[in-house]
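[READ THE FOLD]
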Amino acid sequence: MWLEEDAVPVSPLQTILVEVENAARAAGRPGARLLAVSKTQPADAVAALAAAGQRAFGENYVQEAAGKIAALRAQGLEWHLIGHLQSNKAEQAAQLFDWVQTVDRPKLVAALARHRPAEREALNVLIQVNIDDEASKHGCTPEAIPALAAAIVAEPRLRLRGLMAIPAPFPERDRRLAAFARMRALFDTLATTCPTVDTLSMGMSSDFADAIAGGATMVRVGTALFGARRPPPT
């Protein structure tokens, strides 16, 4: 049975969850996890969404996230770093986050593993891929995935969970779909060699339905949940 989007006058969270479920059903897929992108949003906005049932949140900036994570620690939320990580922030990131989705170079692998607290579970990591070879974006090349994956798997304090990408926002839908398809192929190949790989993070507020159709198992949605972004922290 299809979920009817207009069946209940719902909150933005409920609306997005329905859209995610419908996109998965249309694609014949089991579903996708929703990551609420809370960058630049205050802790009380995160708390409100958590009270509505959302448990996983994505942050771009380590320093900004630190305050929210501390303020909301009692709620037991799951925190993902989805912004570019500088090596000098790796120690703090390894201590704060449950997931780091933007691992794209061996130096970062070593730093995260070295600083992950022994009392915490292994840090879940995704390899960020620059799937459209954009000069303005971070991420490794598709060809670099095997070596980077091997480096992660060799670290007991890290757990390789899959791949992440931010495809180029081409105006042509077929080009965007092609990028999702290439990411899915890379993900399927990686999953055959690593049993812990189960997550393909791609798709945002404007294109998450297409991303799910293309094979995403996690979508990152901010604006559609929280509204327009606030100015970044200074």
About this structure: The first strand starts at residue 33 and ends at 37. The mean pLDDT is 93. Residues 173-193 form the longest helix (21 residues). The two ends are 47 Å apart (CA to CA).
